[in-house]
């Protein structure tokens, strides 16, 4: 299985300077900014030729998605071996995802790859339905915003066990850490299932509920 480039950073550790988040006039502009962030993240991890303009085209065969899922699983299993006590507090994927490496855009094989990734997100990463997407949301561009939100939430969860995260996720965690320090708040506590009690990635409601995106 492929490994992401570079070393991941855990929450609360010092990373490179984070770009400021400018106010956006519309949900479309915010969505475009999130696509740019994710494209830069995937380019840095895997050396891809990807940007906001070709972001969906690069993902639509499912090859990059499956590669990333398997890299996350490999990182999770390594984290489990290195820090078993800490790993018990974090939901970790235990299985990767199968992928057809010969899939071409628009083919059944590409749809199957995307579907396999989606099922992996639900089963192995327990991604909430509110930010999940379906195969046609990516392949036919029916719900681009949920494709983006799902990848951001996946990046947020994988960062807990060492996978480098998108800038927006690191920014959110750094703000949370600063607030905890300023207000002397306790660290997130494990929930009933032993997982840390985190909220999903917070994004403006206009993006979650905006029309025509």
TrEMBL record:
Q: What is its main location?
A: cytoplasm
Q: Where is this region: Disordered?
A: 1-21, 185-213
Keyword field contains Cytoplasm: yes
SMART domains given in the database record: CH
Q: Where's it found, cell-wise?
A: Cytoplasm, Cytoskeleton
* Cellular component, GO annotation: actin filament; cytoplasm; microtubule plus-end; stress fiber
Q: Name one GO biological process term.
A: actin crosslink formation
GO MF term list:
actin filament binding; cytoskeletal anchor activity; microtubule binding
* InterPro entries registered for this protein in UniProt: CH_dom (IPR001715), CH_dom_sf (IPR036872)
Q: Which UniProt keywords apply?
A: Cytoplasm, Cytoskeleton
List each copy of the Calponin-homology (CH) domain by range: 32-159
Q: Please give the family membership noted in the entry.
A: Belongs to the GAS2 family.
Q: What is this protein called?
A: Growth arrest specific 2 like 2
> What's the encoding gene here?
GAS2L2
